[in-house]
Amino acid sequence: MTAEIEHDDINDLHTEPMLLNMGPSHPAMHGTVRMVLTLDGETVIKVDPEIGYLHRGFEKECEHATWTQVFPYTDRLNYVSPLLNNFGFALAAEKLLEIEATPRCNTIRTIMGEVSRLSDHLTCVGAGSLELGGFSAFLYAIEGRELIWDLTEEVTGARMTVTYARIGGLKDDITPDFADSWRVKRERLLEIIDDVDKLLTKNRIFLDRMQGTGIISQEDAISYGYSGPCMRSTGIDYDLRKDHPYFAYGDIDFDVPVGTTGDNFDRYLIRMEEMRQSIRIIDQCVAKMPDGPVNCDDPRVVLPEKERVYNSIEGMINHFKIIFEGIQVPAGEIYSYTEAGNGELGYYVVSNGTGNPWKVSVRSPSFYHMPAIHKMIEGAMIADIIPTFDTINMIGGEIDR
Amino acid sequence: MSKSDIKKLGRKFRKVVLDTSERLGMDTALIDKDAVREILEYLRDEEKMQYNMLRHLTCVDYLHRDPRFEVVYVLYSMSNKTQVVIKAAVPEDDPTIDSVHDLFGCANWAEREVWDMYGVDFKGHPDLRRILMYEEFDGHPLRKDYDKQASQPRVELRKTERDAIEEFKTFHKQQPEQGSRS
Lengths: 401, 182
Known about the structure:
The structure holds 2 protein chains of 2 kinds. By secondary structure, chain A is mainly alpha-helical. Chain A is built from 18 helices and 8 strands. In chain A, helix 5 runs antiparallel to helix 17 (385-392). The longest helix of chain A has 29 residues, at 103-131. Chain B is α/β, with parallel strands linked by helices. Helices cover 24% and strands 25% of the residues of chain B. The longest helix of chain B is centred in the middle third of the chain and has 12 residues, at 107-118. The chains are: A mainly alpha, B alpha/beta. Chains A and B meet through strand 3, helix 2, helix 9, strand 6 and strand 7 of A and strand 3, helix 3 and helix 4 of B.
């Protein structure tokens, strides 16, 4: 009899799933994504991410721009590490043109790319700790990011919207005192990384929130096209800098950290270690910076010296043709890939032989990380969404394009 | 490596592999669109190839060319570290192709994006909604004949909100063991 009564009580309990809209105006959702959650108590039983709030028509705009005019648009893809996007597109166009950048240009691209990666990882780790209540670690990380952005500003003239790369070269050489500036900043960066490490890595609260949450298996990671720290956290050693070296990565000694479980804590640890490796890469590049020109010697793509433009008719015409008609890229198509802050950043570029790209399609890492978020979140608590969403490091600019 | 894989593919599927090419390091096979599932599954599961990662899925609109669209699959083999590109031509009057969402997880959203932007219909896709544009958007913006400055009709207030709980219940009834999606 009592059993029957208890049974009835359970039936009477209100167990209907609850619908909760998380975002887009939720601080942890970056203002750019909405998650429609179906909750059973505090357990998430279904998640439906909705993206597109930051859609700017990147691909349509690119089709109406000249090849060089695409660079400012690529800045806005992953706005935390704009240089990596710049270089990725430059590499794609150079592959279509079948030209190679000079050794000095490649080394500078490697340096500035790693500088951007540092800023990306610092933001991810810092914001992640902030979202879990660790304000001090956030302030240290942002101090480090400021140093990085000062360095970026010295070299490129802008903090975020850099537009530093050009097809066949760069906007400008790095500053003459870059090595000194870097030497000062790297000491402070190492201190900051150690401070953040001390504040977070053995912190009981941080560990409880990060360990064992947001787990993705190796099979799912491959099936969903994961890359970058998210892929490596599952134990798969997939780093394009090692597997298919580009720029100067082939001559440089660095390690690729790999996780074991594929949870949030592994992704955090990988990002911390990658920052130290980035500093190592930059040190080596600064030490063996080759001399020579920054831009390759190809009048089809590189603007002539200003002196020639103002003083000779050929130089003037060359300048005029490149600016007005755009660089004439031979017809063809290429899928070019680089390792960006979040993972594999690919450009599928189609040219029809004119000054405007026929199609520029971006394979942004975030767009391939987000569809599998239900694998990580469903069945977990609602509070686990915050660290999971952070360590995936979804960037609105590159997912919505 | 990937070159020989493309050759092997051409030999095995002689009828449906229409053309193979190799330029700028891109080993490409143009295939009949009806065989896309068969070929991708073969490439994924064949022991010596194992193209188990779909790197990129997109579509190119070649206006004034017949067939007009080309759906592009960039596949990568994690074990051999090689890449092949599979292209399927899709005509304008019948813009449909089979979905591969169950072969590669990431194809789910990528196909939604291609449908959103180009209007290519993926047969068998469980959830073919717009992804970057809003539901009421008129047309497919990345088609070449969609004007860059085209304006959109005013959107009326929606009559009913989407009821995710109902949606979930119906879904849950179909696959009670598997959670919301496979």
